[in-house]
Amino acid sequence: MSVDITASVHIDRDPAAVAAYMTDPANDPQWIGGLRTADLLGEPPVAVGSQVRRVASFLGRRVEYVNEVLALDAGQLEMRSIKAPFPMHITYRFEPAPGGGTAVSNHVRGGGPRLLNPFVRRNVQRDLERLRDLLES
Fold first, then answer.
1. 63-109 residue pLDDT tens
2. How far apart are alpha carbons 53 and 74 in whole angstroms?
3. Residue by residue, what is the 3-state secondary structure of the chain?
4. What are phi and psi of 86, to 5 degrees?
5. What distance in Å separates the CA atoms of residue 87 and residue 65, rounded to the nearest whole number?
6. Fewer Cβ in 10 A, N or C end of the chain?
């Protein structure tokens, strides 16, 4: 896998509230740039083994992908693509921050040329900042 980036942000909300928001696919289009829809395939709630179908727009093209939840607990959500233009492995962490609030990080690993790292890092950082702005408003 050539893409390997980590982005992070501090959110002035408790970890349980951040985790609840981030693990509900219905919220994804509000904070993930380019994402048009996100649908849980199967019955709620989201759990290990759940699959989420996402439809995004990238460079004017429709992109559909399906992620499978590999791990989910009070401190993380880990997923991998099972249907996508290129393989991705995503790990969100939401942990108590020193002084209060939540330290949120997103580690993305996947296919594609290494030269995409700065582009992916910038977009993922913007997504986390959008998430922060939504949850702090």
1. 999 999 999 999 999 999 999 988 999 999 999 999 999 999 999 99
2. 23
3. CCEEEEEEEEECCCHHHHHHHHCCHHHHHHHCCCEEEEEEECCCCCCCCCEEEEEEEECCEEEEEEEEEEEEECCEEEEEEEECCCCEEEEEEEEECCCCCEEEEEEEEECCCHHHHHHHHHHHHHHHHHHHHHHHC
4. -150, 150
5. 10
6. C
CA distance 82 to 114: 21
Residue-averaged pLDDT of the chain = 95
Whether 101 and 13 have beta carbons less than 8 Å apart is answered as yes
CA angle 38, 46, 33 (to 5 degrees): 30
Cα 101 to Cα 19: distance, rounded to the nearest angstrom: 12
